[in-house]
Amino acid sequence: MLVHSRAARWAVWALFLVLFLPLFALPLLVVVGASFATHWSSVLPSGFTTAHYSAATRGEALQALTTSLVTALTASLLALAVGTWAALAAAALEPRHRRVVDALFVLPVAVPSVVVGLAVLVAFSEPPLLLNGTRWIVIVAHTVLVTAFAHQSVSAGLTRLDPAYEQAAASLGARPSYVLWRVRLPLLLPSLTAAAGLCLALSMGELSATMMLYPPDWTPLPVLVYAATDRGALFAGSALAVVLMTATLLVLLVVTRIRTRASYR
Length: 265
Prior knowledge:
Structural class: mainly alpha
Mean pLDDT: 86
Shape: globular
Strand content: under 5%
Distance between the termini: 28 Å
Low-confidence stretches: none
Helix content: over 70%
Number of strands: 2
CATH architecture of the largest domain: Orthogonal Bundle
CATH superfamily of the largest domain: MetI-like
Strand order of the largest sheet: 1-2
Radius of gyration: 22 Å
């Protein structure tokens, strides 16, 4: 910590708690409490039941969780491939051209996600790429929304790479493809795993664009959370939200473990 005085450190911690507890911790704790509640008395939920979780881990809810995981994993892999390729290609361009590429990839996050959903709906509702009504239009929308984060993460990792490693490999006669696969990408592995984790988390919670695009047989879990709370089933919606949050955290823990191993390579 940059603050050296004990009194100042206590003041910083106190300010952190004052901001963190009401803005972040308390709302999440209320959601967790509501997921086990049977009714709402005064300020906080009360009663205790696990029935909401029984419904949130079977049938339609379990299928929706699987849909969210498959969508997030597929979109993240596609975004990682496209974003990494674009970052590597942009690194070889002149600065002004690189800025244009960066701006193009940041554009989807500079506008509301509902606009991205509408753009994807319009673009893929007619031949030759007719994806409307299929799961692929949801995956494409998620990929468009998270590719910017993969591109920015890999671009930042490229600026920190020491060119001496690539120059040494090239001086020993290594082909450009060999340098890419055996030198650059392994050195970028921490950035790649960080980008994958961010893309997964964002895709798991995406709702606005998904609401415009999802077909009845491909309903992600955030849509069920919204539907439950919209019809007044707050306790059931809270249980679904906790399941979604837990699944996202478990996936992120796996990605973090991979990233930690990559950092020690």
